[in-house]
Structure to design on (115 residues):
Protein backbone atom coordinates (compact mmCIF):
# COMPACT_ATOMS: atom_id res chain seq x y z
CA UNK A 1 0.00 0.00 0.00
CA UNK A 2 1.28 3.45 -0.97
CA UNK A 3 2.18 5.91 1.77
CA UNK A 4 0.93 9.47 2.02
CA UNK A 5 4.47 10.68 1.21
CA UNK A 6 4.54 8.56 -1.97
CA UNK A 7 1.15 9.96 -2.98
CA UNK A 8 2.36 13.53 -2.41
CA UNK A 9 5.46 12.81 -4.51
CA UNK A 10 3.24 11.35 -7.26
CA UNK A 11 1.10 14.51 -7.31
CA UNK A 12 4.29 16.60 -7.55
CA UNK A 13 5.48 14.45 -10.46
CA UNK A 14 2.09 14.79 -12.16
CA UNK A 15 2.29 18.56 -11.72
CA UNK A 16 5.77 18.62 -13.29
CA UNK A 17 4.55 16.46 -16.20
CA UNK A 18 1.60 18.78 -16.84
CA UNK A 19 3.88 21.83 -16.74
CA UNK A 20 6.18 20.29 -19.37
CA UNK A 21 3.35 19.15 -21.64
CA UNK A 22 2.59 20.87 -24.90
CA UNK A 23 -0.31 21.13 -27.32
CA UNK A 24 -3.75 19.95 -26.25
CA UNK A 25 -2.59 18.52 -22.94
CA UNK A 26 -1.12 21.84 -21.86
CA UNK A 27 -4.28 23.64 -22.94
CA UNK A 28 -6.51 21.23 -21.05
CA UNK A 29 -4.44 21.61 -17.90
CA UNK A 30 -4.38 25.41 -18.11
CA UNK A 31 -7.52 25.70 -16.00
CA UNK A 32 -7.75 27.63 -12.76
CA UNK A 33 -9.86 25.37 -10.54
CA UNK A 34 -9.95 24.13 -6.98
CA UNK A 35 -8.91 20.50 -6.78
CA UNK A 36 -9.22 17.64 -4.32
CA UNK A 37 -7.73 14.17 -4.48
CA UNK A 38 -9.09 11.71 -1.92
CA UNK A 39 -6.79 8.73 -1.38
CA UNK A 40 -9.44 6.22 -0.40
CA UNK A 41 -7.32 3.48 1.16
CA UNK A 42 -5.46 5.98 3.35
CA UNK A 43 -8.59 8.10 3.93
CA UNK A 44 -6.60 11.29 3.36
CA UNK A 45 -7.44 14.16 1.02
CA UNK A 46 -5.05 16.48 -0.77
CA UNK A 47 -6.57 19.87 -1.57
CA UNK A 48 -5.24 22.68 -3.68
CA UNK A 49 -5.57 24.17 -7.16
CA UNK A 50 -4.96 23.32 -10.76
CA UNK A 51 -3.47 26.62 -11.85
CA UNK A 52 -1.57 27.53 -14.99
CA UNK A 53 -0.95 23.91 -15.90
CA UNK A 54 0.38 22.93 -12.47
CA UNK A 55 -1.12 21.21 -9.46
CA UNK A 56 -0.53 23.17 -6.27
CA UNK A 57 -1.19 21.15 -3.11
CA UNK A 58 -2.15 23.46 -0.25
CA UNK A 59 -3.14 20.94 2.41
CA UNK A 60 -3.66 17.31 3.32
CA UNK A 61 -6.33 16.34 5.81
CA UNK A 62 -7.82 13.12 7.13
CA UNK A 63 -11.10 11.87 5.71
CA UNK A 64 -13.02 12.79 2.58
CA UNK A 65 -12.87 16.36 1.27
CA UNK A 66 -14.33 18.86 3.72
CA UNK A 67 -15.46 21.17 0.90
CA UNK A 68 -16.55 20.45 -2.66
CA UNK A 69 -13.72 21.30 -5.04
CA UNK A 70 -14.42 22.18 -8.67
CA UNK A 71 -12.42 19.10 -9.77
CA UNK A 72 -12.64 16.06 -7.51
CA UNK A 73 -10.61 12.87 -7.80
CA UNK A 74 -10.80 9.76 -5.65
CA UNK A 75 -8.66 6.62 -5.91
CA UNK A 76 -6.43 4.25 -3.97
CA UNK A 77 -2.85 5.35 -3.40
CA UNK A 78 -1.42 2.49 -5.44
CA UNK A 79 -3.62 3.52 -8.38
CA UNK A 80 -2.35 7.11 -8.16
CA UNK A 81 1.23 5.88 -8.26
CA UNK A 82 0.47 3.54 -11.18
CA UNK A 83 -1.27 6.32 -13.13
CA UNK A 84 1.61 8.75 -12.72
CA UNK A 85 4.19 6.06 -13.57
CA UNK A 86 2.27 5.18 -16.75
CA UNK A 87 1.45 1.62 -15.65
CA UNK A 88 -2.29 2.33 -15.49
CA UNK A 89 -4.25 4.20 -18.15
CA UNK A 90 -6.65 6.78 -16.78
CA UNK A 91 -9.50 5.91 -19.14
CA UNK A 92 -9.35 2.23 -18.17
CA UNK A 93 -9.13 3.03 -14.45
CA UNK A 94 -12.04 5.47 -14.70
CA UNK A 95 -14.20 3.07 -16.72
CA UNK A 96 -13.60 0.27 -14.21
CA UNK A 97 -14.39 2.50 -11.22
CA UNK A 98 -10.87 2.45 -9.79
CA UNK A 99 -10.67 6.21 -10.27
CA UNK A 100 -13.52 8.67 -9.77
CA UNK A 101 -13.45 12.07 -11.47
CA UNK A 102 -16.14 14.64 -10.83
CA UNK A 103 -16.22 18.12 -12.33
CA UNK A 104 -18.51 20.49 -14.17
CA UNK A 105 -19.51 19.50 -17.69
CA UNK A 106 -17.27 22.07 -19.42
CA UNK A 107 -14.30 21.07 -17.30
CA UNK A 108 -14.89 17.39 -18.08
CA UNK A 109 -14.92 18.17 -21.79
CA UNK A 110 -11.68 20.08 -21.46
CA UNK A 111 -10.02 17.46 -19.27
CA UNK A 112 -10.92 14.59 -21.64
CA UNK A 113 -7.84 15.37 -23.74
CA UNK A 114 -5.76 14.40 -20.70
CA UNK A 115 -7.27 10.92 -20.85
Amino acid sequence: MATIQECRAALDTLSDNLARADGGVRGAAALDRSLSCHITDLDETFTGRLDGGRIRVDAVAPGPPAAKAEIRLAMAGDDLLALVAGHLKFAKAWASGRVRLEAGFRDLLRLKSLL
